[in-house]
């Protein structure tokens, strides 16, 4: 069975998606249990399941994507308060980045089903992202404490607790909402984050003296490169993509013997392909082949359905870290499917990017 189909079976059979539709952040192989449900991870899973349905027309995937979307719109989303928490039990924080991923997941399910509920909640959440997270300095707060929506103190040592170029992936939700609704205000908010991100990206890498932290920052920097795709044919964005791909590949090669994340391999392979298709940066075929081969090694094989077909989050030296991760699996299955289908000449729409 092809790797992306094995990963699809893992999403369906592993129990990583709960009966209420929510998706756990990861499965711990050492503890034999799932971590708590996360709205961000549920949004990613919804996008991944829609993508699997687009490849296979297997109704199970669209049913599971719909269950994830209904969890987000009917359980996680507080319509009266206009709040989407990071975790629902308890709802202590909301993240700018997570909200953007949920918007894109809901729009993916809307496109797959035609159910306006998902587009309408996505638009409402997109408007709250701008209203709640915009700071007086002109950037966007990464984290707010609930229920008061108070900005959490920023930490320059942690990329996820600071505004940065990685936020462009979440801001891409505004571009998608502009396309879905025709509301020009969404276009303007994406452009605002694009300008900030292009400036901020220059100093983002390596960004930390600890090489393991640099690997984490590669993951975040690849979010920035993904967020450039709506403008990939503009000269400055195409140049940023070409430079960024080369820089990530260089640092990945340096750090991987000590610590490597599967999602970094997957994101790098995906952005190489999308940048090539958009005309922004020609594909380095040899490098992409190496990355596809390395990525495939992270797929787990086990008699345990909670593990088999999923993807390990990372490896330190020769030891797998004990996390089977839905986001790693989503990015990896898409990267390997795109790589497998490349020879056919098919060029998927940017909307399908998980």
Number of domains: 1
Assess the beta-strand content as a share of residues: 5-15%
Q: Could you name the CATH topology?
A: Glycosyltransferase
Radius of gyration: 19 Å
Q: How many β-strand runs?
A: 9
Secondary structure category: mainly alpha
Count of runs of 4 or more consecutive helical residues: 12
Widest sheet: strand ordering:
2-1-9
Q: Ends: how far apart?
A: 22 Å
What about the largest sheet?
3 strands, antiparallel
Q: Please state the average pLDDT score.
A: 97
- The level of helicity is 55-70%
What order do the SSEs take from the amino end to the carboxyl end, as H and E?
A: HEEHHEHHEEHHHHEHHEEEH
Inertia-based shape: globular
What does this structure look like?
With 354 residues, the protein is mainly alpha-helical. The protein has a single domain (3-352), classed as Glycosyltransferase (Alpha/alpha barrel), CATH 1.50.10. Helix content is 56%, strand content 6%. The protein has helices at 3-13, 39-56, 59-76, 96-113, 116-133, 167-181, 184-200, 211-227, 235-255, 262-278, 285-296, 326-341, and strands spanning 27-28, 33-34, 93-95, 143-145, 150-151, 259-261, 314-316, 319-320, 323-324. It has a three-stranded antiparallel sheet. Strands 3-4-5 form a three-stranded antiparallel sheet. β7 and β8 (319-320) form a beta hairpin. α2 (39-56) runs parallel beside α12 (326-341), α4 (96-113) packs parallel to α6 (167-181) and α10 (262-278) runs antiparallel to α11 (285-296). The longest helix is centred in the C-terminal third of the chain and has 21 residues, at 235-255. It is globular, with a radius of gyration of 19 Å. The two termini are 22 Å apart. The mean pLDDT is 97.
């Amino acid at each position: 069975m092809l790797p992306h189909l094995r990963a699809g079976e893992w999403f369906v059979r592993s129990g990583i998606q709960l009966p209420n539709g929510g998706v756990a952040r990861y499965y711990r192989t050492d503890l034999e249990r799932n971590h708590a449900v996360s709205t961000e991870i549920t949004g990613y899973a919804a996008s991944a399941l829609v993508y699997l349905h687009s490849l296979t027309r297997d109704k199970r995937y669209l049913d599971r994507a719909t269950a994830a979307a209904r969890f987000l719109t009917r359980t996680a989303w507080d319509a009266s308060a206009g709040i989407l928490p990071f975790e629902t039990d308890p709802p202590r924080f909301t993240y700018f980045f997570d909200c953007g991923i949920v918007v894109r997941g809901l729009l993916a399910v809307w496109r797959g089903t035609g159910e306006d509920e998902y587009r309408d909640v996505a638009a409402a959440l997109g408007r709250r992202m701008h209203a709640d997270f915009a700071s007086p300095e002109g950037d966007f707060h990464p984290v707010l404490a609930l229920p008061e929506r108070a900005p959490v103190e920023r930490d320059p040592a942690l990329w996820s607790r600071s505004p940065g170029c990685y936020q462009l992936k979440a801001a891409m939700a505004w571009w998608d909402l502009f396309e879905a609704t025709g509301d020009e205000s969404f276009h303007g908010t994406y452009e605002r984050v694009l300008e900030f991100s292009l400036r901020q990206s220059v100093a983002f890498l390596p960004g930390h003296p600890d090489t393991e932290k640099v690997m984490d920052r590669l993951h975040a920097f690849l979010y920035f490169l993904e967020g450039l795709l709506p403008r990939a044919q503009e000269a400055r964005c195409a140049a940023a993509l070409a430079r960024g791909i080369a820089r990530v590949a260089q640092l990945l090669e340096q750090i991987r013997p000590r610590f490597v994340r599967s999602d970094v391999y997957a994101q790098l392979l995906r952005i190489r392909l999308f940048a090539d298709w958009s005309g922004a940066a020609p594909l380095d075929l040899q490098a992409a082949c190496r990355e596809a081969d390395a990525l495939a090694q992270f797929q787990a094989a086990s008699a345990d359905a909670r593990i088999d077909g999923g993807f390990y989050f990372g490896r330190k030296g020769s030891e797998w870290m004990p996390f089977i991760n839905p986001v790693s699996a989503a990015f990896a299955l898409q990267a390997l499917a795109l790589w497998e289908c490349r020879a056919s000449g098919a060029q998927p729409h940017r909307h399908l990017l998980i």
